[in-house]
From TrEMBL:
Residues 57-153 form the Methyltransferase type domain. GO terms for molecular function: S-adenosylmethionine-dependent methyltransferase activity. It comes from Ulvibacter litoralis. Keywords: Methyltransferase, Transferase. InterPro entries: Methyltransf_11 (IPR013216), SAM-dependent_MTases_sf (IPR029063). PANTHER family: TRANS-ACONITATE 2-METHYLTRANSFERASE (PTHR43861:SF1), TRANS-ACONITATE 2-METHYLTRANSFERASE-RELATED (PTHR43861). It comes from the Bacteria. One of its GO terms (biological process) is methylation. This is Methyltransferase domain-containing protein. CDD domains: AdoMet_MTases. Pfam families: Methyltransf_11.
Length: 265
């Protein structure tokens, strides 16, 4: 397929999402500006104290997580495909008197725009499904990490993306090892399901074996791998809130999240 067309379609949709998400309860911009972190327990516990550490945040949207790490003392750079998202991230960085930097590019082209290496490379919650092939992604991560640097991903589980959520109830429609692109067109966005914007999106499924093998082939050593039943985000149908305030399936039939931590040797 024409990957340029797919990426352009996705960029246009994400550009539309910026204004909708910035006004949404999901992103709670007022609380964020008043000092509330946008980070969740998984990533905070996994990465610990990042004071003085350099961090590259891949597919950062309009930078709330990037800026949350910056507030914690990390020296942050965020990368995103959407020029409108990067513009808002830069605006927030200035308004909050932080020192993060933002770069607008396709995440697969990060090494064409950024030459320095980082102590930490981070990505989270709904990022790798926008990429057709994880091998160049993993290679880029290795290029941007210092020796001894940490890569960390917390992401929705591949099983969750086997379902078509544009119908109710969701149907298991897509293959776990599916290589073909998935195109969906629907009204609204996860940040505001009542929005009248039309989301037009190309995505790709990636199995856990593909994710892990891509990182290993790029020279990273996996130091931690976990799967979780509970998500901090109520974005799948019929989830229930647990005692920790996270969301999980009533049946716990399959995990909703996974975490991987890796080191560049």
């Amino acid at each position: 397929m024409d990957l340029k067309e797919a990426f352009d379609t996705n960029r246009n949709t994400w550009n539309q999402k910026v204004a909708v998400h910035a006004e949404s309860d999901f992103y709670n911009m007022k609380a964020f500006k008043e000092g509330q972190t946008s980070l969740n327990r998984y990533e905070i516990e996994a990465l610990g104290d990042l004071s003085g550490e350099s961090l590259l945040h891949l597919q950062c949207h309009f930078g709330q997580d990037t800026l949350s790490f910056s507030r914690m003392g990390a020296k942050c750079t965020g990368v995103d495909l959407s020029d409108k998202a990067v513009a808002l991230a830069e605006q927030l960085n200035t308004e909050l008197a932080l020192d993060a930097r933002f770069v607008c590019c396709n995440v697969l082209d990060t090494s064409k725009h950024i030459s320095e290496t980082f102590d930490v490379v981070f990505t989270s919650y709904g990022t790798i499904g926008w990429l057709p092939d994880l091998r160049p992604w993993a290679q880029m991560i290795s290029e941007r990490l210092k020796v001894g640097g940490i890569f960390y991903i917390v992401e929705f589980h591949p099983i969750a993306w086997m379902f078509d959520y544009t119908v109710s109830p969701p149907e298991m429609k897509y293959g776990y090892h599916q290589k073909e692109a998935i195109y969906e067109e629907y009204e609204g966005t996860y940040g505001d399901t009542n929005s009248k914007m039309t989301s037009k999106e190309y995505g790709w499924n990636h199995s856990l074996s593909e994710i892990i093998s891509s990182l290993l082939e790029a020279g990273l050593e996996i130091t931690n791998f976990k799967e979780h039943d509970a998500s901090p985000y109520d974005i799948f149908p019929d989830l229930v809130k647990n005692d920790e305030g996270f969301f999980e399936m009533k049946t716990k039939r399959y995990p909703l999240l996974f975490e991987i931590k890796a080191v560049k040797k």
